[in-house]
Write a structure and sequence with these properties.
By secondary structure, this protein is mainly β. It has a single domain, classed as Porin. 0% of the residues lie in helices and 72% in strands. The chain contains no helices and 12 strands. Strand 9 and strand 10 form a beta hairpin. The chain starts with a strand and ends with a strand. The relative contact order is 0.16.
Length: 178
């Protein structure tokens, strides 16, 4: 997955080795007066999945170890971790995310909540469209909440999300499931 929300870029590449676990690479860049990059080898777990008659809900977590780089040239050990909960029907979507990237010099956390609606029901092999509204906060950056309306498209293994913060910063995410 690749994504950018204003001043934060995210890149993730994972290989699942079971239905509930995956390992891979996760990198995050925070662009502000400090300009930091965190990169880690990460392990993820699906803690719980509820397969309901017409819905699905999930709880995920992950933790990684790696390094952090700052604009001034400081490099050191770092860790990345996350927690995610989501719920989805073919017409309604909700999710909450918390990510932490930390090194001895600095730590950043990202909190977000999303709610969405699909204007029509589509099958997995058809183009699915969602209108999503996200509220999020990144600590030690603007120290304000970002409100982000966006549109999500997916078909089969492909996922594209486009939008803009209310301050005019572009937002984009792209994902492929192999």
């Amino acid at each position: 997955m690749m994504g950018s929300t204003g001043s934060v870029q995210n890149f993730e590449l994972y290989q699942s080795y079971s239905a509930r676990t995956a390992w891979g690479f996760h990198a995050m860049r925070f662009e502000d007066d400090q300009d930091e990059i965190f990169a880690a080898i990460q392990h993820n777990w699906l803690l719980k999945r509820w397969n309901l008659p017409s819905a699905q809900a999930n709880i995920y977590t992950g933790i990684g170890a790696g390094a952090a780089w700052q604009e001034e040239g400081d490099t050191g050990p770092a860790g990345i971790g996350f927690f995610r909960a989501d719920y989805e029907t073919r017409r309604v979507y909700a999710a909450c995310d918390a990510k932490l990237a930390a090194s001895p010099e600095v730590s950043r956390s990202i909190f977000s909540a999303e709610a969405g609606i699909a204007p029509y029901k589509a099958e997995f092999d058809q183009i699915n469209t969602w209108f999503i509204f996200q509220a999020g906060h990144v600590t030690a950056m603007d120290d304000t909440f970002e409100l982000i309306p966006k549109v999500r498209f997916f078909k089969g293994p492909y996922f594209l999300e486009l939008g803009s913060t209310l301050r005019g910063r572009p937002v984009a995410s792209f994902m492929i499931h192999f």
